[in-house]
Amino acid sequence: MGSRVKTGYSKVQECLPKIDVDLIGTYSIKDHKGTKLEEMALNLLPEANTVVVFGMEIYPEILSHGKPERTTGMASLNDLLDRHMEYLNGRLTRAAYEIAKVSHTSGLKAFPLPALGCPMDFRFLQSIFSYKHAAQAAGLGYIGRSSLLITPDFGPRVRLACCLTEAKLESQKVTTENPCTGCNICVTSCPAKALDVPKADESYAMNKFACSSFRSASGGCSECMRLCPVGT
Predict the structure, then answer these.
(1) pLDDT in tens, 158-188
(2) Rounded to whole angstroms, how far apart are CA atoms 106 and 216?
(3) Residue 195: beta bridge partners?
């Protein structure tokens, strides 16, 4: 390995603690060889060695007003949640590009993935890169029965962005137990009836089309995120 490449790895590692976000995790793609995580990453950047995942807290004070019920003509506090999300998306996307820039200036390839706007295959409602599965692999939390990433500090109230980089960084491991206790509040409270109790070998059971249809018709829904007791 050339000295320039070694220096590039070091610079990316040194940059991570300086990025102003609430959560940062990394995982080495080689640790997930033969999995969907490896396939998704290498489809985007064949030279990628590491995925860096960034998270920002969604403030529960604002989320508490983000309800799916709307009355025609009345002011909707959902609009404040939308503005909050815009702010978080901007911060997270900037973080992804900061790592990409450090990688590039060090002679390493990188592929930043923004907090909003990752291409989706609408036939299956599946993104070309799963941020929540990447975040779980990077040690930020576990995917719970709501199908959302559940973090120890913030529960499911997080936004995510990612950056693939040629820099070789170590995988981080989750040091806490799964914070999703299976209380089923998300399952029983889902207004779209899109969630069900998962099988023993599954993290969640979700009808993505029912969820998406309800969200579109109601103008937005975040009940599973709002009602989760973890991190409150």
Answers:
(1) 999 999 999 999 998 776 789 999 999 999 9
(2) 43
(3) 206
pTM of the model: 0.92
Q: Which of 134, 132, 129, 116 is closest to 50 using CA atoms?
A: 134
What number of residues does the chain have? 232
Radius of gyration of the chain (CA): 18
- CB-CB contact of 67 with 90 (8 Å): no
b/e string for 7-18 if b means 16 or more Cβ within 10 A? ebbebbbebbee
Give the count of alpha carbons within 13 A of 136, CB side only.
18
CB atoms within 10 A of CB 2: 8
* Closest residue by Cα to residue 140 from 153, 151, 154, 155: 151
b/e sequence 55-83, b meaning 16+ C-beta within 10 Å: bbbbeeebbeebbbeeeeeeebebeebee
Q: Identify whether the C-beta of residue 143 lies closer than 8 Å to the C-beta of residue 203.
A: yes
d(CA 97, CA 164): 10
